[in-house]
Write a structure and sequence with these properties.
- The protein contains nine helices and no strands.
- The termini are far apart.
- The chain is mainly α.
- The protein is globular, with a radius of gyration of 19 Å.
- The model has no long low-confidence stretch (mean pLDDT 88).
Length: 215
Protein backbone atom coordinates (compact mmCIF):
# COMPACT_ATOMS: atom_id res chain seq x y z
CA UNK A 1 0.00 0.00 0.00
CA UNK A 2 1.45 3.38 -1.00
CA UNK A 3 1.87 6.32 1.33
CA UNK A 4 -0.88 8.29 -0.40
CA UNK A 5 -3.33 5.40 -0.04
CA UNK A 6 -2.50 5.08 3.64
CA UNK A 7 -3.03 8.81 4.08
CA UNK A 8 -6.46 8.60 2.47
CA UNK A 9 -7.44 5.69 4.70
CA UNK A 10 -6.17 7.29 7.92
CA UNK A 11 -9.35 9.32 8.65
CA UNK A 12 -11.55 6.24 8.16
CA UNK A 13 -9.31 4.17 10.40
CA UNK A 14 -9.35 6.87 13.08
CA UNK A 15 -13.14 7.13 12.84
CA UNK A 16 -13.48 3.36 13.12
CA UNK A 17 -11.27 3.25 16.22
CA UNK A 18 -13.11 6.15 17.85
CA UNK A 19 -16.49 4.57 17.08
CA UNK A 20 -15.36 1.25 18.53
CA UNK A 21 -14.10 2.96 21.69
CA UNK A 22 -17.37 4.86 22.11
CA UNK A 23 -19.56 1.78 21.59
CA UNK A 24 -17.40 -0.38 23.86
CA UNK A 25 -17.39 2.23 26.64
CA UNK A 26 -21.13 2.85 26.45
CA UNK A 27 -21.85 -0.89 26.44
CA UNK A 28 -19.64 -1.41 29.49
CA UNK A 29 -21.23 1.41 31.47
CA UNK A 30 -24.81 0.57 30.49
CA UNK A 31 -24.27 -3.09 31.37
CA UNK A 32 -22.78 -2.09 34.73
CA UNK A 33 -25.86 0.00 35.52
CA UNK A 34 -28.12 -2.85 34.39
CA UNK A 35 -26.26 -5.38 36.55
CA UNK A 36 -26.64 -3.06 39.54
CA UNK A 37 -30.43 -3.16 39.29
CA UNK A 38 -30.83 -6.60 37.70
CA UNK A 39 -27.89 -8.84 38.72
CA UNK A 40 -28.95 -11.64 36.37
CA UNK A 41 -26.49 -11.42 33.45
CA UNK A 42 -27.70 -14.52 31.65
CA UNK A 43 -31.28 -13.27 31.37
CA UNK A 44 -30.18 -9.72 30.52
CA UNK A 45 -27.93 -10.92 27.71
CA UNK A 46 -30.63 -13.27 26.41
CA UNK A 47 -32.88 -10.24 26.06
CA UNK A 48 -30.14 -8.27 24.32
CA UNK A 49 -29.48 -11.14 21.91
CA UNK A 50 -33.18 -11.51 21.07
CA UNK A 51 -33.49 -7.78 20.37
CA UNK A 52 -30.42 -7.93 18.11
CA UNK A 53 -31.83 -10.87 16.14
CA UNK A 54 -35.22 -9.15 15.74
CA UNK A 55 -33.51 -5.93 14.60
CA UNK A 56 -31.51 -7.78 11.94
CA UNK A 57 -34.56 -9.62 10.60
CA UNK A 58 -36.65 -6.44 10.60
CA UNK A 59 -33.96 -4.57 8.67
CA UNK A 60 -33.71 -7.46 6.21
CA UNK A 61 -37.48 -7.55 5.64
CA UNK A 62 -37.44 -3.79 5.00
CA UNK A 63 -34.70 -4.30 2.42
CA UNK A 64 -32.17 -2.19 4.32
CA UNK A 65 -29.54 -4.91 4.72
CA UNK A 66 -28.55 -8.26 3.22
CA UNK A 67 -28.13 -11.15 5.64
CA UNK A 68 -26.72 -14.61 4.98
CA UNK A 69 -28.96 -17.56 5.87
CA UNK A 70 -27.76 -20.10 8.42
CA UNK A 71 -26.07 -23.17 6.96
CA UNK A 72 -24.93 -26.38 8.64
CA UNK A 73 -21.33 -26.08 7.39
CA UNK A 74 -20.95 -22.53 8.68
CA UNK A 75 -22.59 -23.42 12.00
CA UNK A 76 -19.97 -26.15 12.56
CA UNK A 77 -17.15 -23.69 11.94
CA UNK A 78 -18.77 -21.12 14.24
CA UNK A 79 -19.22 -23.55 17.17
CA UNK A 80 -15.89 -22.86 18.97
CA UNK A 81 -16.33 -19.13 18.47
CA UNK A 82 -19.85 -19.26 19.93
CA UNK A 83 -18.55 -21.06 23.01
CA UNK A 84 -15.95 -18.37 23.64
CA UNK A 85 -18.48 -15.61 22.89
CA UNK A 86 -20.98 -16.93 25.43
CA UNK A 87 -18.28 -17.44 28.08
CA UNK A 88 -16.89 -13.97 27.43
CA UNK A 89 -20.30 -12.30 27.53
CA UNK A 90 -21.61 -14.14 30.58
CA UNK A 91 -18.39 -13.73 32.57
CA UNK A 92 -18.40 -10.03 31.66
CA UNK A 93 -21.83 -9.69 33.22
CA UNK A 94 -20.78 -11.59 36.33
CA UNK A 95 -17.62 -9.49 36.60
CA UNK A 96 -19.62 -6.27 36.35
CA UNK A 97 -22.06 -7.56 38.97
CA UNK A 98 -19.28 -8.42 41.45
CA UNK A 99 -16.52 -5.94 40.57
CA UNK A 100 -16.18 -2.32 39.56
CA UNK A 101 -15.79 -1.08 36.00
CA UNK A 102 -12.15 -0.17 36.55
CA UNK A 103 -11.24 -3.78 37.31
CA UNK A 104 -12.89 -5.02 34.12
CA UNK A 105 -11.13 -2.35 32.04
CA UNK A 106 -7.74 -3.13 33.59
CA UNK A 107 -8.01 -6.83 32.81
CA UNK A 108 -9.28 -6.17 29.27
CA UNK A 109 -6.29 -3.94 28.63
CA UNK A 110 -4.06 -7.01 28.90
CA UNK A 111 -5.76 -8.70 25.94
CA UNK A 112 -3.77 -7.01 23.10
CA UNK A 113 -0.46 -8.43 24.35
CA UNK A 114 -1.89 -11.94 24.70
CA UNK A 115 -3.62 -11.76 21.32
CA UNK A 116 -0.43 -10.59 19.59
CA UNK A 117 1.45 -13.58 21.01
CA UNK A 118 -1.27 -16.05 19.96
CA UNK A 119 -1.44 -14.46 16.51
CA UNK A 120 2.28 -15.10 16.13
CA UNK A 121 2.02 -18.67 17.43
CA UNK A 122 -1.05 -19.86 15.54
CA UNK A 123 -1.71 -17.46 12.67
CA UNK A 124 1.85 -16.82 11.50
CA UNK A 125 1.70 -13.08 12.07
CA UNK A 126 4.63 -10.92 13.05
CA UNK A 127 5.28 -10.05 16.67
CA UNK A 128 4.84 -6.39 17.66
CA UNK A 129 7.82 -4.09 17.17
CA UNK A 130 10.09 -3.31 20.08
CA UNK A 131 8.31 0.00 20.69
CA UNK A 132 4.86 -1.62 20.54
CA UNK A 133 6.00 -4.48 22.78
CA UNK A 134 7.32 -2.02 25.36
CA UNK A 135 3.97 -0.20 25.35
CA UNK A 136 2.03 -3.46 25.75
CA UNK A 137 4.28 -4.67 28.56
CA UNK A 138 3.82 -1.28 30.23
CA UNK A 139 0.06 -1.74 30.13
CA UNK A 140 0.36 -5.19 31.71
CA UNK A 141 2.72 -3.81 34.38
CA UNK A 142 0.11 -1.18 35.18
CA UNK A 143 -2.53 -3.90 35.49
CA UNK A 144 -0.30 -5.85 37.89
CA UNK A 145 0.20 -2.70 39.94
CA UNK A 146 -3.55 -2.16 40.08
CA UNK A 147 -4.11 -5.71 41.34
CA UNK A 148 -1.46 -5.39 44.04
CA UNK A 149 -2.98 -2.11 45.22
CA UNK A 150 -6.58 -3.34 45.10
CA UNK A 151 -8.11 -3.79 48.55
CA UNK A 152 -10.43 -6.50 47.24
CA UNK A 153 -7.42 -8.58 46.17
CA UNK A 154 -5.83 -8.07 49.58
CA UNK A 155 -8.95 -9.41 51.32
CA UNK A 156 -10.12 -12.20 48.97
CA UNK A 157 -6.94 -13.08 47.08
CA UNK A 158 -6.94 -14.35 43.50
CA UNK A 159 -10.55 -15.55 43.88
CA UNK A 160 -11.68 -11.92 43.68
CA UNK A 161 -10.74 -11.94 39.98
CA UNK A 162 -12.30 -15.23 38.89
CA UNK A 163 -14.94 -13.74 36.60
CA UNK A 164 -12.71 -11.06 35.08
CA UNK A 165 -10.07 -13.72 34.39
CA UNK A 166 -12.68 -15.87 32.64
CA UNK A 167 -13.73 -12.81 30.68
CA UNK A 168 -10.14 -12.09 29.64
CA UNK A 169 -9.59 -15.69 28.49
CA UNK A 170 -12.83 -15.63 26.52
CA UNK A 171 -11.96 -12.33 24.84
CA UNK A 172 -8.45 -13.49 23.88
CA UNK A 173 -9.69 -16.74 22.35
CA UNK A 174 -12.59 -14.96 20.67
CA UNK A 175 -10.33 -12.36 19.05
CA UNK A 176 -7.74 -14.90 17.93
CA UNK A 177 -10.11 -17.55 16.61
CA UNK A 178 -12.32 -14.86 15.10
CA UNK A 179 -9.54 -13.90 12.69
CA UNK A 180 -9.11 -17.52 11.65
CA UNK A 181 -12.87 -17.87 11.34
CA UNK A 182 -13.14 -15.01 8.86
CA UNK A 183 -10.70 -16.79 6.55
CA UNK A 184 -12.80 -19.99 6.60
CA UNK A 185 -16.34 -18.64 6.24
CA UNK A 186 -17.50 -16.77 3.17
CA UNK A 187 -20.40 -14.37 3.66
CA UNK A 188 -22.27 -12.35 1.06
CA UNK A 189 -22.72 -9.84 3.87
CA UNK A 190 -19.68 -10.25 6.16
CA UNK A 191 -20.86 -7.79 8.81
CA UNK A 192 -24.53 -8.66 9.20
CA UNK A 193 -24.01 -12.33 8.38
CA UNK A 194 -21.47 -12.79 11.17
CA UNK A 195 -23.60 -10.76 13.60
CA UNK A 196 -26.66 -12.91 12.91
CA UNK A 197 -24.68 -16.16 13.25
CA UNK A 198 -23.08 -15.04 16.49
CA UNK A 199 -26.32 -13.95 18.14
CA UNK A 200 -28.63 -16.64 16.77
CA UNK A 201 -26.28 -19.47 17.75
CA UNK A 202 -25.46 -18.02 21.19
CA UNK A 203 -29.07 -17.60 22.36
CA UNK A 204 -29.53 -21.26 23.36
CA UNK A 205 -26.21 -21.60 25.23
CA UNK A 206 -26.76 -18.27 26.98
CA UNK A 207 -30.21 -19.39 28.12
CA UNK A 208 -28.63 -22.57 29.53
CA UNK A 209 -26.02 -20.45 31.33
CA UNK A 210 -28.78 -18.27 32.73
CA UNK A 211 -30.63 -21.30 34.08
CA UNK A 212 -27.57 -23.08 35.41
CA UNK A 213 -26.06 -19.98 36.97
CA UNK A 214 -29.21 -18.71 38.64
CA UNK A 215 -29.72 -15.93 36.10
Amino acid sequence: MTGSAEARMAPNVALGIASYMACSSLALISNKVTMFYFPTPGLVFCLQIVVTILFIHAARLLGKITVDALSVDNVKVFAPYICSFVISLYSNGRALAHSNVETVIVFRSCSPLLVSILDWMFLGRELPSARSSAALVGVVAGAVGYVLADSEFAVEGAGAYFWVTCNLCGIVFEMTYGKRLISKVRFDSPVWGSVLYTNALSLGPMFIMAGGGGG
